[in-house]
Design a protein that fits this description.
Layout (H helix, E strand, L loop, with lengths): L15 E6 L1 H18 L5 E7 L3 H8 L7 E8 L12 E4 L9 E9 L3 H11 L5 E9 L12 E5 L5 E2 L15 E4 L1
Parallel strand pairs: 2-3, 2-5, 5-6, 6-7
Antiparallel strand pairs: 1-9, 3-4, 8-9
Helix pairs in contact: 1-2
The protein binds 1-O-pyrophosphono-5-O-phosphono-alpha-D-ribofuranose (PRP).
């Protein structure tokens, strides 16, 4: 466990409980995941589909460690609003324009919490005849009893705390922290 960064000006006075994953730890694991993904897709077209907004930093770091041709697109869904508990209501606000048919689709999430977001999205994407459809998540809380799909690529088994940073927000704040931390 790492001590919180003292008086980080990015926090606007909000106190951290602890830093769960520092920059170096994240960078090392993301590079490893890039290698795992490179090895898992020896052929075919790969579309890396990032779920916004939470995955934007993870995805941009991850794709630079995938050493094979790929395309990038995004999905926008929303489940949390401003609350710290998942509401279970998933709204699809943007649908990828890219054709999914016949491609390997890698759906990239920042965190799997209740799994409701993924259940909804995987069902929807599966209907579009992809060659394969897998989930890649930086963090997995392993509490998603309702999740009907395996998460093939996982960065870290996440603690059961409300986490912010490296894309994850609290009421749209703290996404820009280069580390992942829990709030006081
Ligand atoms: C968060 C997070 C995941 C999802 C996980 O997204 O980024 O996408 O919730 O929760 P679940 O497993 O309980 O469904 P959010 O809706 O907060 O949007 P954001 O990515 O824009 O922060």
């Amino acid at each position: 466990m790492t001590a919180p960064a003292a008086a980080d000006p990015r926090l606007s006075g909000r106190a951290l409980k602890r830093i769960a994953y520092d920059e170096e730890t994240i960078a090392k694991r993301v590079a490893e995941m890039g290698e795992e993904i490179t090895d898992a897709y020896p052929d075919g077209e790969l579309l890396v589909l990032g779920l916004l907004k939470g995955s934007f930093i993870f995805l941009s770091d991850l794709v630079r460690h995938i050493r094979r041709p790929l395309q990038v697109d995004f999905l926008v869904a929303s489940s949390y609003g401003d609350a710290t508990e998942s509401s279970g209501v998933v709204r699809l606000l943007y649908d990828p324009e890219t054709r999914l048919e016949g491609k390997h689709i890698l759906l990239v999430e920042d965190i799997v919490d209740s799994g409701r977001t993924l259940n909804r999205l995987m069902a929807l994407l599966g209907k579009r005849a992809p060659r394969s459809l897998e989930i890649c998540a930086l963090l997995h809380k392993n509490i998603a009893t309702e999740l009907q799909y395996e998460t093939k690529f996982v960065g870290f088994d996440a603690p059961h705390e409300f986490l912010v940073g490296y894309g994850l927000d609290h009421a749209e704040n703290f996404r820009h922290l280069p580390y992942i931390a829990s709030l006081q």
